[in-house]
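Example noted here:
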Amino acid sequence: MRSPLLFALLAGIAGVVIGRAMPRDTSAADALASASPSSSPEVPQRTPTAEEIRRNRELLDSYAEAVIVQHPDGTTGVYRPEEWPTDGDGVIVARKLPSGEIGWYAGPEAGPRSDPAAFRRLELPAVTPPTLVRGSDGTLQVNGKPGAPALQRMFPGTPSPGAP
C-alpha cells in the first residue's frame, strides 16, 4: 500500500518541479498582441459562457476550415472563411487549418490576417522530466543537485543500494 502512495507523491512533486522549471513560450501571445492595430481600441476581457464555448466548439468541429474571430465586445466567434467579411467587426486571431490543427496569427511579418499562410501551429518546447535519485547519504537529488529542504522533509529516506 505504501508503494503506490509514494509513487503518487513523487509524481506530484515531479509535476510541480517540471511545471516550475519548464520555460514558458509566449511568442504566440506576443505575436497576437503586436499584431493588433494600434488604432483599434483594446478588446475587453471577459469570460465566455458555457453555452458560447459549446456553440463555438460544435462549429469548429463541424467546419473543415474556420476562422476564429475576437469581436470588439469581447465575444469570440467561429465562422467559415468565406462567411467572414474582410471588413468584419472583429479581428481574426486564429484559423482552423485544412489539417484540422489550430493556427495562431504569426504577426504582421507573416502576412495579412486574410492569408491562411500567416497562421502558424503553436510549437511547444520539448520538456525533459527531472531525474530523481536518492544519494548515498539519503538525500533526494533532483537533476544531480540536492533537492529542496521541503522535498527532503517530505520524503525522508535511506540511501538506495548502489547510489552515488
Residues 2-21 form the longest helix (20 residues). The chain has two domains: 2-22+127-154, 27-121. The longest strand covers residues 91-96.
